[in-house]
Amino acid sequence: MAKRKDIKFRDRAGEIKEEDVLAEFEEEDAAREQAAIRDVTERAKKFHAVSQATGRPLTLDRASPHRMELYAAAAQIYHALQYIDRAGKQNLLKYSYSDFLDHLAAFKGLTREPEAAATTTLRFTLSAEREAATGIPVGTRAAVPDWSVYFATTQYMEIPAPSPWTYRRRVPWPERWATDWP
Known about the structure:
Layout: H1 2-12, H2 18-54, H3 65-89, H4 98-107, E1 118-125, E2 134-136, E3 141-143, E4 149-152, E5 157-159, E6 166-173, E7 175-176
Antiparallel strand pairs: 1-6, 2-5, 3-4, 4-7
């Protein structure tokens, strides 16, 4: 750790180049990785030798430190495989998202449209004919049948009298369900 701090200060002073530091740490990391691989290989060989010598499979107790090490290693390997899987799927349109999707589109010369609220046409229906015009105030909400999304009017509108007819107006979407709406 002290070596890394020393390099950090020397780098700020301009005494060393970043490429040299990265190469040095890369060598250290490779050496540590090789040592870990050798250690795991030796342990596996010992485990296999004991199993072969006794003629029966060797089992580890639930609290065995070796069992815990194996579980930890398995979890790390699983997560690494998940990252690899996700990285591979980013090359497919179906699984790509965010900036990855934009980069895929760039191959075809496409760009993403900026986000915008969706709109729909609302139809308000009166239950009976009225003698006066019926006002529909700004912010009147109408929900989809499962109540998961609602739309709200953005302008005051009126249904003229006498008419049981409806008035259509395009409104933005999505505005999520609000708890203050009955």
